[in-house]
Write a structure and sequence with these properties.
Blueprint (H helix, E strand, L loop, with lengths): L1 H35 L4 H14 L8 H11 L5 H21 L10 H17 L1 E21 L2 E18 L4 E4 L5 E11 L3 H6 L1 H4 L34 E8 L9
Antiparallel strand pairs: 1-2, 2-3, 2-4, 4-5
Helix pairs in contact: 1-2
Length: 257
């Protein structure tokens, strides 16, 4: 008798578990149907992955707010030209990583070139190759404008898509996907320098804006005269700017930090 009661209890428990399973499965399928138009969870997951791969990342656009401030400090600043240069630097930076060839970088400060060289050397030391293929830019905007002690840094933020993957020496994919697009965004820093020739030899000193006559620091960007010697300060043209850092914002690749 006790055995029969035990069996009945087990069957009841199994029945309850089974009914609960059916209810949960129906709830999940209904939710999947409502959200993704299909009750198939596997298909819904595939749709989510595809949507993630085709939806551009949003950028933090501060252009409308910051560009007037930049133009007030630097009347000769050409926004469209600088944005195009920022795009070219970013694309060439990624191509240089793919080819492991620093010379593919279109322009940049010594620090940017060193950042690129360090990353390529890291890949070589680890026996890896990192690929950014079929890069397509979606949008580029000004993200930050910082001024301190005569230094000026403009940060452009760019959303892009590409096929990104990392391989070992045997061409085995360790990270990423050759078939699935990768959506991400990058920050590209542009720095203002007064002495471009000096920057080529001494990056750190070139960060500060100084009077070309007496060498005194210029406390205010866009100043017309030196406060110490009274020398007129010529407004610098487009070549007084240099790109000096690239950083990926979406933390999938460890490449660009």
């Amino acid at each position: 008798m006790k055995l029969i009661i035990a069996l009945i209890l087990i069957l009841v428990i199994l029945g309850i578990v089974f009914i609960a399973f059916l209810c949960i499965r129906k709830k999940v399928r209904d939710t999947s149907q409502a959200l993704f138009g299909t009750p198939d969870i596997t298909q819904a997951a595939a749709q989510m992955k595809q949507e993630y791969a085709t939806t551009p990342k949003s950028v933090s656009s501060m252009t409308s707010l910051l560009l007037p401030k930049i133009s007030a400090d630097f009347p000769d600043f050409e926004y469209n030209e600088m944005k195009e240069r920022a795009n070219n630097v970013l694309v060439s930076f990624l191509r240089a990583i793919t080819a492991k060839n620093v010379s593919l970088l279109t322009e940049g400060s010594r620090e940017l070139k060193q950042q690129l060289e360090n990353h390529i050397e890291m890949l070589r030391a680890e026996g890896r190759s990192e690929h950014f293929e079929q890069v397509r830019l979606h949008r580029t905007e000004i993200y930050q404008y910082r001024k301190t002690d005569g230094k000026c840094i403009i940060t452009f933020q760019t959303s892009l898509e590409c096929f990104h993957y990392i391989e070992d020496e045997g061409c085995k994919i360790l990270e990423g996907d050759k078939q699935m697009k990768y959506q991400t965004k990058f920050n590209t820093d542009l720095i203002y320098v007064q002495d471009v020739d000096k920057m080529k030899n001494d990056y750190d000193d070139a960060l500060a804006v100084t009077c070309p006559n007496c060498g005194a620091p210029i406390p205010m960007l866009g100043a017309k005269h030196c406060e110490y010697c009274g020398c007129a300060i010529i407004e610098l043209n487009i070549h007084a700017w240099a790109f000096h850092h690239v950083e990926e914002i979406t933390a999938r690749s460890n490449a660009l930090r």
